[in-house]
Amino acid sequence: MAIGDYVRRELASIDASASIRVAASQMAEQSIGCLMVNEGGRFAGIVTDRDVALRTIRDSLDPNTASIGSITERDAIVIHEGRPVRVAVALMKSHGVRRLLVGNKQGDIVGLVTWDDLVGLIARELSEIAGTIAAQGPHLPVPPSRAVIELAHEGESV
User: Fold this and answer.
1) Which one of 38, 55, 68, 155 is separated from 127 by 20 to 30 angstroms, measured CA to CA?
2) Is 19 helix (H, G, I), strand (E, B) or coil?
3) Are 6 and 113 in contact (CB under 8 A)?
4) Could you give the CA distance from residue 100 to residue 115 in angstroms, rounded to a whole number?
5) Burial of 79 (0-12, 13-18, 19+ CB in 10 A)
């Protein structure tokens, strides 16, 4: 099961020169937790609502004048869209992040996957398993779930 099958392909973005306040307002209006930051028409990094709150306060920045580019994470972690879900889970765990950017063969960012997306995927898989078990009755074997199998192998090296 490739992570590209579960990626959010429509990404909200903002120019690096925009103020932190403008970025925060955009996130609030769109009910999103992160923005792709562009600089000179190219992807420059990602900024999260947590970055906005913590870095602005930590560095005593004026959100009206400081640019969103000044607090953007420029070393974003990108996973290829063809990699298995279990690899995305392992990357998120090992790097302590809740979001991964997803790229294609050409090196373009094509989307984003979040912990919430993966939890939803797992919940759906478990629901399907529960339905199958209920339909089969207690005397029949339980069919394997691809998501559960992949998660069982998440400790393998990335």
Assistant:
1) 155
2) strand
3) yes
4) 9
5) buried
Angle ∠(157,111,128) on CA atoms, nearest 5: 70
Report how far residue 149's alpha carbon sits from residue 158's, in angstroms, rounded to the nearest whole number. Answer: 16
Task: Name 118's Cβ contacts closer than 8 Å, sequence gap at least 6.
Answer: 6, 85, 88, 89, 92
Tens digits of per-residue pLDDT, 32-48?
A: 999 999 998 888 899 99
- Tell me the residue type at 146: R
Structure tokens at 51: 């970055």
Cα 87 from Cα 101, distance rounded (Å): 13
What is the model's pLDDT at position 52? 95
Which pTM was predicted?
0.70
Structure tokens at 67: 């640019």
Tell me how far CA of residue 9 lies from CA of 5, 96, 110, 120, 139, in angstroms: 10, 22, 6, 17, 42
Measured between alpha carbons, how far is 139 from 83 in angstroms, rounded to an integer? Answer: 36
Q: What is the pLDDT of residues 61-90, one digit of tens each?
A: 999 999 999 999 888 889 999 999 989 999
